[in-house]
């Protein structure tokens, strides 16, 4: 049993507990555990506050695919989570395009694994505990404490009806998509990105399904478009008989009946005849660019709570782990100087943009593009494009195509010329956006000018694609 160390505060009608330390992390997911482990390893007093029970913690709705499995931050090293990697033979994406009666086999760069997600969740918690972080379960954070200057000084929550107060130099919001902390905190005077709306999220649902006969595609992540361009179905093999099956749609689209639509697709696939469902979960995930700034005085957001997800694949585990590490390292540096203001925390934003934020902002441009095109046209075009280049575009946000390949692609894409031209122009704009993110300001004072240029680049994206503005 994990320790729950508090001071009890007397003289209140309800029982009232308080915790004081260096860093409070809200949320025991990937980003929270990596943040906590990073700071605790350096000897800082860190608590992770989690609304779920100790038994349920780590149980997260996910597709279970882990990209970049070879290069996880050292605070909880790969050796400590590896036993949750149930399928390390996956090495490519299998894109089923029923409209074109085509299957594309697209290589995925870097190390890939499908994992037992709950077991992985327990292992990252164990890793952060081993590093010295405390965990307070069954505690729902409901409010954010701020001083008269606006600096965040802690959070307040409830545990079994008791009020619990946390007071710390830095609060790290790792509470996942649509975090309540950002609704409660008054961040109007900070650079912290508040241009966040439901239309920048995807609603997703997944089941873990057991089949009796091994599937043939146990070395692939299977993707299939839903009837609309803004959604896709996936089948990720945890083993050759245990499949994570799910789907999602962009929340600015007409809602899909997720459970029903998944059931229909499973029913049509012979390999799922007689299958049994072992687990069901749904959740929202950000499919947007990373927050322009994820810091405010005394406050940092990481992982899903800061839009750190690849907006075209929905993969967020690796970004969450690194965001946790970068945030904690910066928090520790700021605490050491006695100044936890925005400028002192800023380098965290820079490291995120440098590592994956620029790339995700580029990929977001393709996301915007797909909301404005007809799904059948798009699938027709995808079937005609060179798969290696598609792979590069999917993961790096850009791809360079030589003239010979361009010519061959042009011949195969006959009938999709308008779309090819739009895609070409969109690609150039995505490249411009990535380049602009590479010039992310080194100081909070540079943010407004940088945002202004970025917004004018995005206006050109909306103009070119005909998509509704997303931000
Ligand atoms: C259906 C689905 C499929 C996905 N598939 C993949 C995939 O295949 N591969 C991949 O890499 N990514 C995938 N993702 C994304 C990935 O799961 C997330 O990006 C990642 O889990 C983010 O980690 P996090 O730590 O930021 O947040 P989370 O893992 O969401 O953790 C947040 C934690 O905060 C706790 N919490 C929330 N509010 C409070 C509160 N008020 N008080 C206390 N605790 C609170 C929650 O209980 C939770 O434990 C998928 C997401 C979904 C929804």
Write structural notes for this entry.
The chain is α+β, with helices and mostly antiparallel strands and 471 residues long. 35% of the residues lie in helices and 25% in strands. It contains 13 helices and 19 strands. It has helices at residues 30-41, 78-81, 117-131, 180-184, 258-268, 317-337, 342-345, 347-371, 375-384, 387-396, 403-412, 417-437, 447-465; strands at residues 7-9, 16-26, 46-49, 65-67, 85-87, 92-97, 102-107, 112-115, 134-136, 139-146, 152-159, 162-173, 201-210, 220-225, 231-237, 242-250, 276-286, 295-296, 299-301. Strands 1, 2, 3, 9, 10, 11, 12, 18 and 19 form a nine-stranded mixed beta sheet that branches. A seven-stranded mixed beta sheet has the order 7-6-14-15-16-13-17, sandwiched between helices. A three-stranded antiparallel beta sheet has the order 4-8-5. The longest helix is centred in the C-terminal third of the chain and has 25 residues, at 347-371. The radius of gyration is 23 Å and the shape is globular. The structure holds flavin-adenine dinucleotide (FAD). Flavin-adenine dinucleotide binds next to helix 1, strand 4, strand 10, strand 13 and strand 17. Flavin-adenine dinucleotide (FAD) is lined by residues 26-32, 49-52, 60-66, 140-141, 174-176, 180, 204, 206, 246, 283, 285, 303-305, 309, 314-317, 320.
């Amino acid at each position: 049993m994990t320790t729950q160390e508090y001071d009890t505060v007397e003289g209140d009608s309800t029982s009232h507990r308080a915790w004081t330390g260096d860093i409070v992390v809200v949320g025991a997911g990937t980003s929270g555990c990596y943040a906590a482990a990073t700071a605790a390893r350096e000897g800082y007093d860190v608590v992770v506050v989690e609304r779920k029970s100790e038994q349920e913690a780590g149980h997260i709705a996910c597709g279970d695919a882990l990209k970049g499995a070879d290069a996880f931050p050292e605070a909880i090293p790969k050796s400590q989570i590896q036993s949750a990697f149930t399928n390390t033979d996956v090495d490519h994406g299998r894109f089923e395009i029923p409209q074109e009666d085509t299957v594309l086999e697209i290589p995925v760069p870097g190390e890939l694994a499908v994992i037992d997600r709950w077991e992985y969740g327990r292992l990252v918690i164990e890793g952060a505990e081993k590093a010295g972080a405390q965990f307070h379960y069954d505690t729902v954070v409901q409010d954010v404490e701020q001083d008269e200057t606006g600096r965040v000084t802690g959070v307040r929550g409830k545990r079994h009806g008791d009020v619990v107060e946390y007071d710390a130099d830095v609060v790290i919001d790792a509470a996942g998509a649509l975090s309540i902390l950002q609704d409660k905190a008054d961040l109007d005077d900070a650079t912290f990105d508040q241009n966040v709306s439901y239309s920048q999220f995807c609603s997703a649902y997944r089941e873990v399904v057991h089949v009796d006969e091994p599937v043939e595609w146990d070395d692939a992540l299977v993707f299939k478009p839903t009837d609309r361009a803004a959604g896709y179905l996936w089948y990720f093999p945890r083993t050759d008989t245990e499949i994570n099956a799910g789907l999602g749609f962009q929340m600015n689209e007409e809602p899909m009946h997720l459970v029903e639509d998944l059931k229909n697709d499973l029913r049509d696939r012979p390999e799922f005849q007689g299958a049994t469902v072992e687990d069901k979960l749904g959740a929202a995930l950000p499919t947007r660019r990373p927050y322009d700034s994820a810091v405010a005085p005394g406050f940092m957001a990481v992982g899903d709570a800061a839009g750190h997800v690849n907006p075209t694949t929905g993969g967020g585990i690796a970004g969450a782990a690194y965001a946790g590490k970068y945030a904690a390292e910066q928090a520790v540096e700021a605490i050491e100087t006695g100044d936890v203001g925005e400028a002192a925390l800023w380098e965290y934003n820079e490291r995120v943009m440098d590592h994956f934020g620029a790339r995700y902002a580029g990929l977001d441009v393709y996301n915007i593009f797909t909301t404005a095109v007809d799904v059948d046209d798009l699938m027709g075009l995808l079937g005609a494009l060179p798969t290696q280049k598609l792979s590069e575009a999917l993961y790096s946000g850009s791809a360079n195509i030589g003239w010979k390949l361009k010519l061959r692609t042009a011949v195969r894409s006959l009938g999709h010329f308008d779309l090819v031209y739009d895609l070409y122009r969109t690609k150039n704009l995505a490249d411009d956006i990535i380049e602009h993110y590479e010039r992310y300001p080194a100081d909070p004072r540079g943010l407004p000018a940088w945002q202004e240029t970025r917004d004018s680049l995005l206006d050109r994206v909306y103009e070119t694609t005909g998509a509704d503005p997303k931000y």
